Amino acid sequence: MTADHGAGDVSVDLLTQTYRDHYSSLLKLAALLLDDAASCEDVVQEAFIRVHSARTRVREPEKLLAYLRQTVVNLSRSTLRRRLIGLRLAPKPMPDMASAEEGAYELLEKDALIQALRGIQRRQREVLVLRYFADLTEAQVATLLGISIGSVKAYGSRGIEALRVRMEAFR
């Protein structure tokens, strides 16, 4: 059953196949930008829902995966923004007591590379994840993040250096 709406539109079949082929890689992309599995799954599911709703506006089916990646990045940013607002409004824990949330995050953050990635600037992390995990070109990263290729190179270079320093600190 194909739900084509016009020449070039993304069909439900293509979206379903893209889901099967790329769900795992999009989940890993979200995991490098966020810090818990449930949020990652929520972000990726929401990305597919949004792309499904907007599929008649995606005129070039070969760009579907890029559109999904951008949606995952944008939704990850929104998730982090909401958390920051929530943390600002939440009552502060007693200074001598670690919160339950901190303990849960410590269990999730066992991998040194992921810890190091989380410690660098957001834009540097996004560039490194998209360049080296998602294997995008500098031009694709620039388009996805809405920045220049020169900025991608600068954030990438600074991010690699920051990551190197943080990885050495873990050793």
TrEMBL record:
<dbReference type="InterPro" id="IPR014284">
    <property type="entry name" value="RNA_pol_sigma-70_dom"/>
</dbReference>
<dbReference type="Pfam" id="PF04542">
    <property type="entry name" value="Sigma70_r2"/>
</dbReference>
<dbReference type="Pfam" id="PF08281">
    <property type="entry name" value="Sigma70_r4_2"/>
</dbReference>
<dbReference type="InterPro" id="IPR036388">
    <property type="entry name" value="WH-like_DNA-bd_sf"/>
</dbReference>
<comment type="similarity">
    <text>Belongs to the sigma-70 factor family. ECF subfamily.</text>
</comment>
<keyword id="KW-0238">DNA-binding</keyword>
<keyword id="KW-0805">Transcription regulation</keyword>
<dbReference type="InterPro" id="IPR013249">
    <property type="entry name" value="RNA_pol_sigma70_r4_t2"/>
</dbReference>
<feature type="domain" description="RNA polymerase sigma-70 region 2">
    <location>
        <begin position="19"/>
        <end position="83"/>
    </location>
</feature>
<dbReference type="InterPro" id="IPR013325">
    <property type="entry name" value="RNA_pol_sigma_r2"/>
</dbReference>
<protein>
    <submittedName>
        <fullName>SigE family RNA polymerase sigma factor</fullName>
    </submittedName>
</protein>
<dbReference type="InterPro" id="IPR014325">
    <property type="entry name" value="RNA_pol_sigma-E_actinobac"/>
</dbReference>
<keyword id="KW-0731">Sigma factor</keyword>
<keyword id="KW-0804">Transcription</keyword>
<dbReference type="InterPro" id="IPR039425">
    <property type="entry name" value="RNA_pol_sigma-70-like"/>
</dbReference>
<dbReference type="InterPro" id="IPR013324">
    <property type="entry name" value="RNA_pol_sigma_r3/r4-like"/>
</dbReference>
<dbReference type="InterPro" id="IPR007627">
    <property type="entry name" value="RNA_pol_sigma70_r2"/>
</dbReference>
<feature type="domain" description="RNA polymerase sigma factor 70 region 4 type 2">
    <location>
        <begin position="111"/>
        <end position="163"/>
    </location>
</feature>
